[in-house]
Amino acid sequence: MAKLTAIILAAGKGTRMKSALPKVLHRVGGSPMVQHVLDAARQAGAERQIVIIGFGADSVREAIGDQAEFVVQAEQLGTGHAVMQAQQLLAAAPGTVMVLCGDTPLLRGELLRNLYQTHRAVGAKATVLTAAMPDPAGYGRVIRGQDGRVLRIVEQKDASPDELAVSEVNTGIYCFETRELLSALAAITPNNRQGEYYLTDVIGILVGQGDKVWALPAEDYRETLGINSRVQLAEAEKILRLRKLRALMENGVTIMDPASTFIDEAVTIAPDTIIYPFTWIEGRSAIGTGSVIGPNTRIENTVIGDNAAVSFTYAHDCRIGSGVTVGPYVHLRPGTVLENGVKVGNFVEIKNTNVGENSKIPHLSYIGDTDMGARVNIGSGTITVNYDGVYKHRTIIEDDAFIGCNTNLVAPVKIGAGAYVGAGSTITKDVPPDALGVARARQANIEGWAKKQRSRR
Ligand code: UD1
Ligand code: CA
Predict the structure, then answer these.
(1) How far apart are alpha carbons 256 and 211 in whole angstroms?
(2) Fewer C-beta within 10 Å: the chain N or C terminus?
(3) Do 239 and 223 contact (CB within 8 A), yes or no?
């Protein structure tokens, strides 16, 4: 098959978003709109992607990086003008070009592949993807002849009342043979109500010169929806979200309440894991089998093993092993690694710390910059004093150590294997293996003192 190139139009400002951010960079399903379009085009077999940028060009270029080539459209004179900017790149690489817009994040690779294959199979010079919109307002209408063949596309603002009654609309997604596209683009003019160079005029020009033009109706119009406002952005978010949840459920994951569960596109979850309500799982997170996540939990860029239970927790950039219990009310900050069988719960914060297998931090602790061995028990209210105001220092707690309640471990400090630390200690010196470290004032009892006080009153 000839090479497929995709051109993604993304130079517009997106006025109706009322935003300083270019429209195509607004996020849905965890990534910018234009990223979804790039992914779908790649899945459809586009080997080369060209993005037309204009408004906010630098930030769009930065967000896309080396996934595509860029062409700047300095002035936005219309969709036809936008494609013309890529003329030189296209002329050098004939074949088929797929034109897309950067604001259709619901597109799937499958639909685009279908468009491309239909275009090739029919042998068309242009194939337009159309949709039956319940509300076609604002879209270009697809005008067909009596024999059903496509004649042209007319924009809403230029359409007659008869043409406005047509519900088959132009989705703004097409395949063209490059040679024919370029010659037709040379013939378009801005003689229309908006004074723009319309890409849609190419269709009528090709039909007029006897070239084969085809239209493929999309099965589900929702997949082709363009996002123009924040209201539509929220609608797209919901569709993408439910699509992801459905895929997970079909794969064996229990989602107790899809309405209150938010899982990004890139997240993977193995079968027989259960997600409780009010849970967010974001970024590059992955969860194994048999785990229970939520309720009220936010997991970001975190890998969780099998048979883990995480509730009422915020974990970001962490790794959580198998059989681990986390929560309720836990904050796991970046760089935290909980090995298999660890227990963390009840108002605990952990940062940049390795916790060895089967160790427990069950209540009211702050553990930061610590390397903890296996089977360690951290008493309630233990604090690692890791920051001297200038530098952070590490705490080392070796295997089988036992830290008594309400202890300060002033780093850098090391608690040896099997050692004990007495409750209420402020530990500033290393405790050797198997020793007891105690650092608190001895208790003194004054007999009869309280009784005497009372009798004075
Ligand atoms: C366009 C189509 C319309 C179709 C609709 C589908 C034309 C003339 N009309 O209308 O038939 O139903 O899409 O959504 O093509 N852009 C540029 N440079 C420009 C102008 C636009 O890059 O000079 C980009 C925009 O950023 C956007 C896309 O092209 O991503 C579509 O532009 P927009 O102005 O939204 O086109 P519509 O009026 O919606
Ligand atoms: Ca427009």
Answers:
(1) 54
(2) C
(3) no
Q: Is 79 in the pocket of ligand 1 (CB under 6 A)?
A: yes
Ligand 1: which atom is nearest the Cα of residue 77?
23
Asked if 143 contacts 228 with a C-beta cutoff of 8 angstroms, the reply is no
Fold of 230-437: UDP N-Acetylglucosamine Acyltransferase; domain 1 (2.160.10)
Residues 6+ apart with CB under 8 A from 298: 279, 280, 281, 282, 313, 314, 315, 316
- pLDDT tens per residue, range 400-451: 999 999 999 999 999 999 999 999 999 999 999 999 999 999 999 999 999 9
Q: Is the CB of 295 under 6 A from ligand 1?
A: no
pTM above 0.90, yes or no: no
Q: Is residue 26 among the annotated active site residues?
A: no
Atom index in ligand 1 nearest the CA of residue 80 equals: 15
Ligand 1 contact, 128 CB (< 6 A) = no
Triad 200, 202, 207: Cα angle to 5°: 115
* Identified catalytic residue from 36, 119, 316, 363: 363
Ligand 1 contact via 9 beta carbon (within 6 Å)? yes
CB distance 100 to ligand 1 below 6 Å:
no
Q: Could you check whether the bond before residue 412 is cis, i.e. omega within 30 degrees of 0? A: yes
What's the whole-number mean pLDDT along residues 83-109? 95
Pairing mode of beta strands 426-427, 408-410: parallel
Mutation choice for ligand 1 from 37, 101, 154, CB with most ligand atoms inside 8 A: 101
Domain ranges of the chain: 4-224, 230-437
CATH fold of 4-224: Spore Coat Polysaccharide Biosynthesis Protein SpsA; Chain A (3.90.550)
